[in-house]
Hints:
This protein is of the alpha/beta class. The chain has two domains: 8-94, CATH 3.30.1330.30; 107-252, SPOUT methyltransferase, trefoil knot domain (Alpha/beta knot), CATH 3.40.1280. 34% of the residues lie in helices and 22% in strands. It is built from ten helices and ten strands. The strands form two sheets. The chain has a six-stranded parallel β-sheet. A four-stranded mixed β-sheet has the order 1-4-2-3. The model has no long low-confidence stretch (mean pLDDT 91).
Amino acid sequence: MITSLRNPRIAGVRRLQRRRERRATGRTAIEGPLLLSEAIEAGITINDVYARSDDEVAAELAATAGREVTKVSDDVLAGMASSVNPRGPVTIITIPGGDRQVAGIDSLVLWDIADPGNAGTMIRTAAAFGFQVLATKGTVDLWSPKVLRAAVGGHFRTTLVEGLPADVAPLAAAGLTAMVATADGAPANDVRLDGDHPVALLVGNEAHGVPDAIASTGNVQTITLPMPGGSESLNAAVSAGILMYLRMVGRSD
Length: 253
């Protein structure tokens, strides 16, 4: 059993809290049995599984992935995890590579989204409603432990593409109709969310939204959700969820 946070292996896991280390190694950490189960089912490469000595669920899942559990003390597990009072296990996976934008399906574009919880919630919702997820260069790292935790396995059920330039040209080139969620666009029921033509729903930074220069581009539609209750705005992830649901309903009509 590993009982020291100074153990080289444990130190390496803790460094994965940093984006630079994740990019350099091509690995990230996931927490809990649900994410480990989802990763195994999706065929993600499982490198190491760390858990308490009495964690039978972790041992069974690790065996399914052809791995053995590395047993750690409670203090070490807490020091490895990004969550408070982690349940374990902490698993190191290889970040899937080579994902490319899929032609002919709807996309949710995270435009400079800064909050990991929002990003994870939107990934989870996109996976549920049949959207792929595209993220601009300024968006939070989609493979950070906090985003992974918030997405509850959504990473493994949809396509993720990071590093999109802050421009709608690639969307147009892919045949997507860009729709920007904004405070002063056309009401949702006035925008065509039905039909087979793929769309890209752009949800902007929590504080600043999508830049005016993008929202006002000639081939971009702006769309808003009416709020008769008088609220100033909706949370970015909530707005995205509502719009994706409306689009899903429109596709099925």
